[in-house]
Amino acid sequence: PPPAMAAMAEVWPDAQVHNVIDDSLAADLAMLGSITPGIHQRFMTLGRYAAATGDELNPTRGILFTCSAFRPAINRVKAALPIPVLSPNEAAFEEALACTKAKGTDGRVGLLLSFAGSAAAAILPPGSSLAPEPPLPDLTPTSAPH
Q1: What is the structure's pLDDT at 49?
Q2: Which residues of the chain have pLDDT under 70?
Q3: 107 touches 71 (CB < 8 A)
Q4: What are phi and psi of 76, to 5 degrees?
Q5: Which residues contact 87 (CB under 8 A, 6 or more apart)?
Q6: Cα dist. 22→25, 26, 49, 66, 100 in Å?
Q7: Rounded distance, CA 129 to CA 113, Å?
Q8: Cis peptide before 135, with omega less than 30 degrees from 0?
Q9: What pLDDT is attached to residue 94?
Q10: Cβ partners under 8 Å of residue 58, min gap 6
Q11: Does an H or E element contain 55, and which?
């Protein structure tokens, strides 16, 4: 199975997981160069659809988007829906930050990206719910060539 599906099966085997895919988003972002209002709307449509796919006995309890390049659009969906909406790097950022704190350092956290579009979305904004108490560790994104 794809990585996200395999991870869900391992960590939460009782969850009923399914995919909702707009497989042209990454190509459109690369062509347009930024997240446009149209891309934001497509994410809202995907999020609302995914949230509505459950029923009274088994409602949708959360959404995980799996492309970090779209974090601004994911954040809009998160603000609009009453269920948890996660971006792919949230847990990884939290774990990396916890590791630096556990080691008693405010050191650098290396971030290796395979999609250049993820670089801007990978930087934690000031006041982010994921940001640790000051000082903020250096989370400078680096894009790996394909």
Answers
A1: 96
A2: 91, 106-108, 113-146
A3: no
A4: -65, -40
A5: 65, 68, 70, 71, 74, 75, 121
A6: 6, 9, 12, 12, 36
A7: 22
A8: yes
A9: 75
A10: 16
A11: none
